[in-house]
Amino acid sequence: MSIVLSAENLHFDYGKTQILKGVSLELKEGAIVSLLGPNGTGKSTLIKLILGLLSPKAGHVSVYGKELTKYGVRERAKTIAYVPQSSSVAFAFSALDVVMMGRVSRQSWFANPSRLDKEISMHSMERLGVAHLADRAYPTMSGGEKQLTLIARALAQEAKILVMDEPISGLDYGNQLRLLETIISLSKDGYSFLKSTHFPEHAMMIGGTTLAIKGGAVIGEGASRDIVTNELIKILYDTTVEIKSTDCGYPVCVPKFFKNIKETA
Amino acid sequence: MKNAFWVMFCLALLALSIFASMGMGRYDIPIRELASFLSWDFLGLGAKPIDSDLYANIIFDIRMPRIFAAAMVGAALAVSGGAFQAMFVNPLVSPGILGVLAGASFGAALGIMVSEEWITVQLLAFTFGFAAVIVAIGVANIYKEASGKTILLVLGGVISSALFSALLSVVKYTADPYNKLPAIVYWLMGSFGAVDKNTALIVFGPMLAGIIILSLMGKYLNILSLGDDDAKALGVRVGLVRTAAIFFATLISSLTVVLAGMIGWVGLIIPHIARFLVGPDNRILLPMCALLGAAFLVIVDTVCRTAMSVEIPVGIATSLIGIPIFILALKGAKKGFA
User: Which of A120, A178, B134, B307 is surrounded by the most beta carbons within 10 Å?
Assistant: First the structure.
């Protein structure tokens, strides 16, 4: 599998506060890379550097072997799509309107969306199971529905690299599982994912590789099921869990306090 | 379909208000005579009306420049208000947010104070309108780390407006209180009374161009309302779109001051009403703002020059008529910007 995206030795700071101290990563075609790390550790900053929304103080990002800075804005949008943590829209655009905005880099300058744009947008919404919300006003939708709409927008963009900032956080349990399933099936279609997550279980379930980040530096990297261990979680989150595997091989994290409760009961 | 209806409706409303306004004034021209004169003049239909010379003088030399100036100013203020609302992702923004109206008012007042020439007043109004926006952008860019953030632009606009309002007060305070000061005060209330054909013809071109270009930018303004990061990731050159929007909005709104002084409220209420009618999509919303703003100001100005024996300053009338309309519109338009 060829490497679609790589970042080398990224440094970033906001004034005196150093955020990233030399982070490198690689994303292969059809692969899923999960970023795991505590709050405020620079995951979102890393994502913005990789999207070119921020410029690194040192290091560089290349996409399909070409420096990210050499991409034009439109060209970049055809290559990498972004799913933000949340997006607030003050005006009552419909969900379909928001998804169709993902098509802008594919349209000529002042062209209106074509029938094809609309079809692709509807198809993306169907794939995320939100086609029935097409006419709903975006600001009136729930957090989860908005999140799924934003992912549909990224699909409509038709970029093969999807960068997601905690796509799971706002979703209800059913939508979480559906989204994970969708990510796996899209990765089989050749989409590559870089996503930050707060759920070590999801990283293990989805497979791929995990990049553990703490204090702006990578402290562990490897196949998700190997690298996510009791020790790693202790280091990252300062909490004690025991990782177990169910009959079918599905990994779960059992918190220590749960065992304590059971023993005292 | 609904949108097509409203566009047609507003076009008809604009045409009707222009037609009615041509017949109304100190010398009333009855509708039937107005219609037969216009159809004779433009289409060559029917016989030459007896009063045709008089009518030509009243309609083409006196009323038309004023009516078209009102239409153009209404369209310009509404479109620049609508464009700024999209750009700042805030439905409470009006064209003056970056200080253009404060700057242009100061320029006009300065012109009235130092010169007897009308052209000086107009040039200074235009120049200081732009200067105020440049000050606002300059202030916003002092903070390098956060440069380009809209919140800093708003702050820059507040500072720039305050600066030029203070300078305006200085001019008022030092102006000759017997003939200069009243002229300044009257100018600041807004009026189409001073519109002359030549100025109108000069500024119509740039104003129309600005209105059309902003309307064409609708697609990109839509995407700006998703926020900067999203817009960039979708492939929009946010800085370019924002600079272009600010430039053209500043151009057309400072030209409104050149033509008619300060006219408030149009740039705030018309985009709201338009959004209520056709939704938030700027590709249709901005043309709608133009039509509705033009019709609104033609109607208000006609009321201003016919309702009483003395002319009512149009800036006062837009506020007095605009506020109740705005309250009514807000009542129904909550869904427009939930």
Answer: A120
